[in-house]
Every structure is written in C-alpha cells, then in structure tokens.
Design a protein that fits this description.
Length: 199
C-alpha cells in the first residue's frame, strides 16, 4: 500500500490541507519526508493519516478542538497492487469509511490493504514520533518488543528473528525431549557413572 494523497479536510487546526506525494516513478526512490518547525502540524498530519486508516476515537477525540468532532473528516488516495482508490473517513459509530463518491464502505476495503495490521502494530512499526523513537531506542537496548526485534534482526542480518525466537520459546515451554528452564540437566554426562561407582 502506498499513500499518494492525504487531505486534512477538517482535522486539528487544519481545513483543506492537502499533501500530494505524486505518482511513484518506476525504478526510482519513493521516499518522502514531512518536516517543519515545532507545532507546524507534523504529528497532527500523522494522526490524520491513522484516522483515515483506522477511524476516529469513539469519544474524547483530541483533534476536534477547532471544528468539533462531528465535522471532522480526512481523505486520501491510496495505491494498492497498481490501483489507486479514494477514501474518506468521518466520525461515527458505523459507516465511517467512504469511497470517493461518498458511498459507505466496509472496513474490509482497507483491511486488505493493511495486511492485517491493527492500529497499535501500525503505529509501532510504521509511525515515528518522539515517543516511538524513545521507546524504540529502549527496546533496541533490551532487544525486545516489535521495534527492537525488527531493528536488531536487520542490524544483525538475521532474517525472521521473531519466528526463530517464537520457535525457541515454544520448544522451551513444551516437553519435546528438550530442556525446560526448571528442569536442569537430567542426563548424566560421559564418565558420570564411573565417577559415582568410584565414590
């Protein structure tokens, strides 16, 4: 999935703020940085994108301070498998995802593009803000958590580290001829029998 356009129709202090990242050029880098001074709206823009993907907060929406929660709206043009598709998101209990013509869509329309990632996973893996960077740094030091594991495996050149660790944990917890942490070594080593006889 690729974000081609994002519009903060009514979100935070923005009204009609549009970001156009253009079409991806074949064989060219496709990396964009949204930057600006403090309080320029970088975090607001990231949060607007997350609202487009996952919906508005059911209550206490922090970005409705200017327009009011009921007036909020975020739109975007997403590319997936060579096809561009327009979406909009509005607040509500149901029917909050709309197509480019304003018709209500099911969440499955975006779910396929998201590949099963829920909002928490998307935030931790793909959204960088001060808090995420700080948490990620701590996880790298401890080599734990999704961010720490992914970055550690990338730096160490170990592909699929999470799957390997999950397998080791499963083997350690099961009794499949291996040792569990509480078992210790129950198999005497070479010469142990002779040493016992000579004692």
């Amino acid at each position: 999935m690729r974000l081609r356009e994002l519009t903060l129709d009514m979100f935070g202090h923005f009204a009609g703020r549009r970001f156009d990242f253009g079409a991806a050029a074949a064989g060219e880098p496709d990396f964009h940085i949204v930057y600006g001074p403090n309080e320029a709206g970088k975090t607001t823009t990231m949060e607007a994108y997350l609202r487009l993907l996952y919906g508005f907060k059911p209550k206490n929406e922090p970005y409705g301070f200017r327009h009011g929660r009921n007036a909020l709206k975020v739109s975007g043009l997403l590319e997936h498998e060579g096809r561009a598709r327009a979406f909009s998101r509005v607040p509500g209990k149901s029917g909050t995802l709309l197509d480019g013509a304003g018709a209500v869509l099911t969440e499955a329309a975006l779910g396929t593009m998201l590949g099963g990632l829920d909002e928490a996973a998307y935030r931790s893996l793909l959204c960088l803000d001060d808090a995420t960077i700080e948490t990620g740094g701590e996880e790298i030091v401890r080599a734990q958590g999704e961010i720490g594991t992914l970055l550690f495996s990338a730096a160490a050149g170990i592909g699929g580290l999470s799957a390997v660790l999950d397998g080791v944990r499963a083997a350690a917890q099961g009794d499949q001829g291996g040792l569990r942490p509480d078992q210790g070594d129950r198999h005497p080593g070479p010469g142990a029998e002779g040493a016992a006889q000579g004692a």
